[in-house]
Structure formats: structure tokens, C-alpha cells
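Quick one, probably user error.
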């Protein structure tokens, strides 16, 4: 792309003003994306705001095909086109301009001296010499046309002459514009002749005009002078824009050499011929809006409140110090660090601006973030393997699936458990990322479902957690692959004869203003007494507003199917609209074997969900806020094996808890370095990684010792 794209877009201002119409102009040459309150204001040069595209990042939202963002200079501009095709045109133009200016900057060799004005003048003189050669050749063509007798040959020569004359005119105008650009950056006697060239349609008051009432002051060649003379009283488009900051009109002198004067006496009989109204508006050092109130905020659900960003808190040294920090590792209560679920608020990401900007400089739109190292301060104090255990924050709902005797009731309970399984995974409203598990890492935990004290002989020694009894729900997880990152986990309740086995491959992508995490994989609920399996997929996750106050939402379609009974369910996790609407919405339908729905569910996955049955009855399906979370139990860190999650990440957790980012970063880097070294050694030895608890069967990771297999071996299975 070269030149100008202009047209209307809507720009998000704030929750009070909402979307506002603006006339946008993309100047590829200047690398600017400017906007005005109207097209008429654009023609008058009254600019409302300006976006410098150098180093900018264009972002899109998968859920809305008309909106996009431009992030640069620690600002995020939210824009909306009339349709997807219009958005695609703008995005293509913006990305071409950003790429072009990035390439121009890369071409500047730091070891090569910067070109000077003397170099510019030399090249301009060479251009003039080539121009004179071309003029002589055109004159020779004219002579051949005049003297020729062959009509066909004359037509061919005339065609060549016309093309050559068009080229001549282009070169002449180019030399004029280069002279104007030169004088803009290096004014003669401190006065600018013109601003950098643009293609905006200027009004006469803003245009460069040729007059004949001033003394020449610019050195121009013979041919250039004739061009200027032919442009008398014709507006020349100049400048980026003429805004309210324009200086008053000043006359500019243009100087001609003696040879030029002799060859152009007809066109330059007056003492002077060139004057203009110069432009004072320069390319800004940073992007800006018309006022501070145009910063973007997510639309608040409580419209009576003004949108605000949390103020970053400043902690004193006494607040950051803890008696545990100066103790030996043996005396530190690492278990307490993990059981403390209160996560410090990140506040606005603008307080971490340089780090976030550096992170964004590593990524491109749609890029896979698997190998991008994230800053330590955005980490949550636990491993991703431990977060997956939150699927069973309400273990009684899960194990209760096996209590129903009718298949219709069982599918309803499976859906009830599934919809209640996500809210506990978020410890705060602010998005934080759990630790990326290293390959071979494991995590074990369990829940007390039946409070009755079990008998001694009820311990399930061959289960996932060999010290648990038949009335406890047990859980184990393993990171089975590093590239791609795949986690596998398994849970079972021996007494209820129910289990769940799943694997999830997390694939992260940078979307501009958001980060999308696609959960590839599936889970399987197994009911041994009924020989039923319920296959479940998982929704995607999105980290929104990553440059302000990040938050998480779920999105996408999920299916739950039982091949034996024919019952199924479809769940839709709805992402928040770009403006208005609510967060965390879901809709779901449970279908009979004949594919007819018998209940529809709607609500919020982190709140109340309502069921409307086919007979017209409406009732609360599940309300996660009204149910207490059953805390999982974990073996003390001191008793854990080397590669169990809490033991593995204990120093990182310690550093994050007491805001010792250096300790956290150093410990995290040490683990990642060890993982890379071990992978290198295995590759050199041509060894394959051997998993501990799970095996790949087809496309699925299956627990090696599931309950169904152990019961079959012991003869206890129905």
C-alpha cells in the first residue's frame, strides 16, 4: 500500500459517550492513523487525535467481526467498522503500513554514516542530469516525427514520445516536491517552504500556491522552474494536517540560479513567484487523543458507577517482610503459602508498562504463545495441574451422578456437575496465569465426601492416592508432554464406582487486546455400575484487557454425549459483547435420544443457572454461590516427591507470596533451564520421554490403572 486510505469508523470513547463517529485517514507515507470528528473537519485540518503506527500492534476479536484495536505508545484504540469486509480493508492497510515502516527502520545500518544534506543535493543534481538527457532524447524523437514520411512509424514514435513526456512530468514534479521537503526539514533562514508531502485534499487556505510577487530564494533547475511556473495559482497538497496549532501565514522566498533566470524569463518576469501558508503540525512524538477521558474502559455492568482503574498499591518494606523469609528452607511453612488462596491484585497493567511492552514486542497477531516467556508477576501461585483439580470443588455433585437409577437423571446430573466445575478455578476477578507444568510433574490430592471415619481395611492402596479410603474422591495429574503442552488427569471414587479421565492440550494465541487459550482434548465420565461413558469437551478461555486490568472469560461450544443411552447435551459459553451485555453467560440444552431437547438452561457459570423444562416448569438448576467449595487435601510439601507440583514450585511460590520477584524469577528460570537441558540430553541420546502414570492410546491419554481395570483384575466388577 502507498498513499491514503480514508473513511468512517466508530471509536470507543468511554462508557458515558460510548461509540462515536470519526473520520479516519491512514497515511502510509507518514505512518500515521489520524482521525477527525467529520470529513469536513478533515478538509480543514482540525485533527481530533493521531495514532503513530511505528511499533503498533493491530488486534482483532474472534467473537466480533467488525471490531479491532490498535495498541501503541501504551494506549489502546478500540475501533469498529460497518462490516467484516470494511474491517479487513482497514486491518490490511494498517498492517502494511506498520510493516513498511518497520522495514525502513531495519534498513538503517548503524555502521553506515547517516546521509547528509550534501548527499541529498548531490543525488538531486544527478537526477537533474538524467532529466536533461531524457529531455534531449524527447527532442530527438520530435525531430524524427517531423522529418518522417512513414505514417505507421510516426504513430509508433508519437506513442513513445507521449509516454516519455508523462515520465518527464512525473520527474519534474518529484524534484519540486523533494525541494519542498528539504526546505521543511532544513528551512532557509529559519522559514519553512512546506511541510512533508501528504495526499489529503486541502482547502485553498491550507494549500501551497504559486504567486508572482516575491523574490525567488530556492535553487531550481531550468525544467523545475518551468513546472513551477505552470503551477501558478494551482493548489499543491501539503502537510499531514493543518490543525488548530497552525502558525500564521508567512511569505517564503525562492531563489533561482543565473542560468535558470536566463532560460525562464517568460515565466519569471516578476521579482518573486512563490509563497505559501506553512504547516506547523508535525508528526507527533507519541499517539494522542483529544482528551484524557478518551481512554478505553470496559463497559461497567453498573452504569451508575464511573469507570475506574485500580490504583497500584505501594507496599512498605515492613509489609513485604515476613519472619519466614530469613529462615532456613526447613522452617518455612510452604503448605501455608499454598493454602492461602488470596492472590494480590495486579492493579493496572500500565504500572508494568515496560515489561508488557517488551512482551508484546515479541508477539504477532495470531501467534502461538507456547514458547513466549511471560513475566513472573502475572503468575498465580500454583501449577496448572493443581488448577485442574478445581473441576471437583463440589465433589458431592460429581459422585452423585452414580446415585441416579434413570439415564435421563444421570445426564442431567453430569451437566449439573460440569456447569459447576469452572467457577472455583478463578481465585480473583483479575486474570493470572498458573505455572506451566514441566514434563514429568505430578499433582495428587483428595476430598472427603463421606465424613464418617473409614475402617482400616477400606484403604485403596492401588488407587491414585494410595493412602485414601473408599469414601474419598482421589485425584492425580501428570504433565505428559512439553511440546505440545499436554496435561492428563484422573479422578475416582471407589465406593461409588465412578471415575473421570481427561487430557487437555493448551494452545495459546495472541489476539491483540486479548490472549486466547484453546483447550484441545476431552474427558470421560465412567459409571461402572451402568457401563456408561460420557464424553465431554472443554471451552476455550480468554484473557481480556491485557494492557489495563486483565480478566478471564470462557467461550465456545461444548458437547456431552453418552453413546450407550443416546442422551446428549450442548453447552454454549458466551463471551461478553464488545460493549454492553454481561460476562460469564451460558446457555445449554439437554437432548433425548431422539435429539429433542427436554430442558434448557441459562445463566452465569460463576453464579446462578436456571432450568426451563419442556413441561413449562422453571427452577434453579444450580447456584455455585450458594454452595460451599470443598477444600482439597494435599500431602505436606515436606513429604512430597521431587516432581510433585507444590514441592517443585515452592521457591517460586515463596517469592510471589512475599513480592520477591527476583527470587521467583530466578527459581522459575532454574526449573525451565533444567527442563531444557534434560530435553537436550535425551535428544542427543535419542531417548524418548517415558511417562509415569498415563499412556497415549490413539489420540487420548489414558490412566494406566483406572478403576475399571483394577476391578476387572480383582473380579469385583459387575
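Nope, works fine. Designed sequence:
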Amino acid at each position: 500500500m502507498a498513499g491514503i486510505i480514508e473513511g468512517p469508523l466508530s471509536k470507543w470513547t468511554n462508557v458515558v459517550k460510548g461509540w462515536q463517529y470519526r473520520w479516519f485517514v491512514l497515511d502510509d507515507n507518514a505512518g500515521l492513523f489520524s482521525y477527525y470528528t467529520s470529513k469536513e473537519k478533515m478538509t480543514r485540518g482540525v485533527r481530533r487525535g493521531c495514532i503513530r503506527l511505528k511499533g503498533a500492534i493491530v488486534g482483532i476479536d474472534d467473537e466480533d467481526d467488525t471490531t479491532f484495536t490498535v495498541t501503541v505508545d501504551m494506549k489502546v484504540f478500540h475501533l469498529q467498522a460497518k462490516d467484516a469486509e470494511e474491517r479487513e480493508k482497514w486491518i490490511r492497510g494498517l498492517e502494511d503500513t506498520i510493516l513498511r515502516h518497520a522495514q525502513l527502520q531495519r534498513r538503517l545500518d548503524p555502521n553506515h554514516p547517516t546521509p547528509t544534506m550534501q548527499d541529498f543535493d548531490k543525488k538531486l543534481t544527478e537526477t537533474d542530469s538524467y532529466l536533461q538527457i531524457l529531455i534531449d532524447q524527447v527532442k530527438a524523437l520530435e525531430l524524427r516525427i517531423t522529418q518522417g514520411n512513414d505514417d505507421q512509424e510516426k504513430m509508433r514514435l508519437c506513442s513513445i514520445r507521449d509516454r516519455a513526456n508523462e515520465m518527464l512530468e512525473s520527474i519534474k514534479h518529484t524534484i519540486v516536491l523533494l525541494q519542498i521537503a528539504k526546505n521543511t526539514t532544513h528551512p532557509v533562514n529559519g522559514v519553512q517552504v512546506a511541510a512533508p508531502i501528504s495526499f489529503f485534499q486541502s482547502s485553498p487556505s491550507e494549500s501551497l500556491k504559486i504567486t508572482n510577487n516575491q523574490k525567488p530564494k530556492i535553487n531550481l533547475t531550468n525544467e523545475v522552474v518551468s513546472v513551477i511556473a505552470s503551477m501558478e495559482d494551482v493548489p499543491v497538497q501539503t502537510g499531514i494536517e493543518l490543525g488548530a496549532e497552525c502558525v500564521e501565514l508567512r511569505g517564503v522566498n525562492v531563489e533561482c540560479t543565473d542560468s535558470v533566470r536566463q532560460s525562464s524569463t517568460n515565466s519569471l518576469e516578476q521579482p518573486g513567484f512563490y509563497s505559501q501558508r506553512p504547516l506547523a503540525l508535525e508528526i507527533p512524538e507519541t499517539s494522542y487523543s483529544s482528551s484524557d477521558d478518551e481512554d478505553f474502559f470496559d463497559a461497567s455492568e453498573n452504569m451508575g458507577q464511573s469507570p475506574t482503574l485500580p490504583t497500584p498499591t505501594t507496599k512498605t518494606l515492613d509489609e513485604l517482610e515476613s519472619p519466614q523469609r530469613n529462615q532456613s528452607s526447613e522452617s518455612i511453612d510452604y503448605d501455608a503459602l499454598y493454602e492461602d488462596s488470596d492472590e494480590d491484585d495486579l492493579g493496572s497493567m500500565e504500572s508494568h508498562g515496560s515489561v508488557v511492552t517488551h512482551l508484546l514486542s515479541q508477539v504477532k497477531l495470531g501467534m502461538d504463545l507456547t514458547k513466549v516467556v511471560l513475566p513472573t508477576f502475572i503468575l498465580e501461585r500454583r501449577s496448572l495441574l493443581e488448577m485442574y483439580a478445581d473441576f471437583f470443588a463440589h465433589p458431592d455433585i460429581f459422585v452423585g451422578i452414580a446415585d441416579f437409577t434413570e439415564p435421563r437423571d444421570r445426564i442431567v446430573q453430569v451437566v449439573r456437575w460440569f456447569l459447576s466445575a469452572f467457577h472455583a478455578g478463578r481465585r480473583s476477578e483479575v486474570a493470572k496465569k498458573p505455572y506451566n507444568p514441566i514434563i514429568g510433574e505430578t499433582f495428587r490430592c483428595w476430598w472427603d465426601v463421606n465424613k464418617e471415619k473409614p475402617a482400616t481395611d477400606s484403604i485403596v492402596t492401588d488407587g491414585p492416592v494410595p493412602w485414601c479410603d473408599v469414601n474419598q474422591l482421589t485425584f492425580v495429574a501428570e504433565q505428559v508432554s512439553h511440546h505440545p503442552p499436554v496435561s492428563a488427569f484422573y479422578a475416582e471414587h471407589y465406593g461409588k464406582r465412578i471415575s473421570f479421565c481427561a487430557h487437555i492440550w493448551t494452545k495459546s494465541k495472541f489476539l491483540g487486546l486479548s490472549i486466547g487459550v484453546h483447550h484441545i482434548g476431552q474427558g470421560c465420565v465412567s459409571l461402572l455400575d451402568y457401563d456408561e461413558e460420557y464424553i465431554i469437551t472443554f471451552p476455550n478461555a480468554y484473557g481480556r484487557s491485557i494492557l489495563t486490568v486483565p480478566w478471564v472469560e470462557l467461550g465456545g461450544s461444548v458437547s456431552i454425549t453418552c453413546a450407550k443411552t443416546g442422551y446428549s447435551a450442548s453447552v454454549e459459553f458466551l463471551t461478553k459483547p464488545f460493549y454492553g451485555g454481561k460476562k460469564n453467560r451460558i446457555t445449554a440444552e439437554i437432548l433425548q435420544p431422539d435429539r429433542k431437547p427436554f430442558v434448557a438452561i441459562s445463566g452465569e457459570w460463576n453464579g446462578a443457572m436456571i432450568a426451563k423444562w419442556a413441561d413449562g416448569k422453571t427452577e434453579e438448576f444450580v447456584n455455585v454461590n450458594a454452595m460451599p467449595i470443598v477444600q482439597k487435601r494435599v500431602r505436606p510439601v515436606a513429604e512430597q516427591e521431587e516432581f510433585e507440583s507444590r514441592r517443585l514450585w515452592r521457591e517460586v511460590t515463596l517469592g510471589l507470596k512475599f513480592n520477591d520477584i527476583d527470587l521467583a524469577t530466578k527459581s522459575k528460570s532454574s526449573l525451565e533451564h533444567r527442563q531444557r537441558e534434560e530435553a537436550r540430553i535425551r535428544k542427543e541420546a535419542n531417548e524418548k520421554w517415558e511417562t509415569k502414570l498415563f499412556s497415549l492410546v490413539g489420540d487420548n491419554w489414558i490412566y494406566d490403572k483406572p478403576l475399571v481395570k483394577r476391578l476387572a483384575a480383582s473380579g469385583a466388577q459387575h
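The chain has a mean pLDDT of 75.
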